[in-house]
Amino acid sequence: MEKMEENKSKQNNVKRPKGGMIAMPFIFSNEVCEKLAVVGFYANMISYLTTQLHMPLTKAANTLTNFGGTASLTPLLGAFVADAYAGRFWTLTVAFIIYQIAMTSLTLSAIIPQLRPPPCTGEQVCQQATSGQLALLYGSLLLGALGSGGIRPCVAAFGADQFDETDPKQPTKTWKYFNWYYFVMGASILAAVTVIVYIQDNIGWGWGLGIPTISMFLSIIAFVLGYPLYRHMDPVGSPFTRLLQVSVAAFRKRNLTMVSDPNLLYQNEELDASISIDGRLVHSKQMAFLDKAAIVTEEDNVKAPNLWRLNSVHRVEELKSLIRMGPIWASGILLITAYAQQGTFSLQQAKTMDRHLTNSFQIPAGSMSVFTMLAMLSTIALYDRFLIRIARRFTGLDRGITFLHRMGIGFLISVLATLVAGFIEVKRKQAAVAHGLEDKPHSIIPMSVFWLVPQYGLHGIAEAFMSIGHLEFFYDQSPESMRSSATALFWTAISVGNYVSTLLVSLVHNYSAKPDGSNWLPDNNLNKGKLELFYWLITGLQVVNLLYYICCAKLYTYKPIQTPTKDAESEEAASKV
């Protein structure tokens, strides 16, 4: 009787649903609220800093790009914690709570008058924020960056974890998940840059920041409620530790003579089983100095190796693959630098232009990024439905074109985006001069804001090619045990790109200043600046970067991998004999 009850309980445990589509409502509900919160909070933040805290434009722009850079660097920390210690669920939960605290404190600064400078009207000199008010701002942004560090590398991967990879139908379900994930994310971002930004500009910052804060709280509730239904993947150790072990082992054996036959290098399939499910990496000729980490000496115990002295070929090739990816990773930095200007200077351009759709309704300047999102989503749809099929006829590749080609197209379109942006700025300033508004920075120039749509749209098309190609590259070329950390590497490129933007803006602002007060990037009057020259400077840098990328792409060596199919077949044949 006891055995029957025991068997019954075991059957119930087996049948209890874990992961799969049943977990998706909780994950997608979380994603809708989280993206609505995060994007709604920061899409129009340049306006909050300049109009509510009275920051100079360049200082506000640098504050946001510094925040963006830090928020894109912390995912390395989040990925390490998730992979090595906490797992994705608990990393996400803690990160959501930290982000909630950051958003709540900033919302309070918008509601409580004592936490921000007094308002100013007309052309009077505005009082800037005090050190205490700035401390609250910077503390909130720092907490937001820490929260992003746990959210960005884990949120998409946690959803993919809900599907069992041993299930033959898993690939279809995973790709379906990612399609829905990006659709939900895009729809949420569109809602944020339209509805939330409109509320911020026309109703007030209290509601404009309060609604995203409430949305973040709801996202945490939705996420935690799904806990019993999730598949929880145990942390299996950080890949960064393995990379360090290979480096230390190679350094320790730096004086050894390299073996003549690569087959003599250390192999241990049992040791590497958990990190080589999709196939083992085989020896490559590049970076031979790292191969010394796999040379077996008399001091080494091959059955239970000290990984700080001896590593398998597979682990050595993991590090080689990561190093090979470095130059391609670096090429994405300047595209982010160009893209970052949409949230700062392009937004300021929009604020000076006629944004009316009707006599009573005008587009909020912060909502101009909706054209970037629409262009990006439309390009992704066209690429998936039509361009891949056309390209497949010429290349024979299932994906149409390689991710390296896709990235190259994105780079080229980004060059066009900043080139066009410069010409549109020239026209905007000409309109300001023609209507006598050159010295009136707060006046609206009678020129439609839709003149900015080409530059916003081109940036969206560039992102559809470059950013997704970049992610494909990281996923395909990174070792399988590091794919969860590959997203973090992607975000580090965004981080550096934002920091480069800060550096570039600061250098141009300082070195273009003249004794008469003129500046390429003036703090208060964009009509008196030379923003077009700044855009064309970025265009020139991107041209150089495109040439650099072409060289890197031509010289790039794809990771050498041996799939387990043939080995499995040979073992099966041997067992039959």
From TrEMBL:
Q: Where in the cell is it found?
A: Membrane
- Give the keywords, sorted: Membrane, Transmembrane, Transmembrane helix
How does the record say this protein sits in the membrane? Multi-pass membrane protein
Q: Say yes or no: keyword Iron present.
A: no
- The membrane spanning regions, by residue number, are 21-43, 63-82, 89-115, 135-159, 180-199, 205-230, 322-341, 361-383, 403-424, 444-468, 489-513, 533-551
The molecular function terms of the Gene Ontology recorded here are: transmembrane transporter activity
Hey, which family's this protein in? Belongs to the major facilitator superfamily. Proton-dependent oligopeptide transporter (POT/PTR) (TC 2.A.17) family.
Q: What is this protein called?
A: Major facilitator superfamily (MFS) profile domain-containing protein
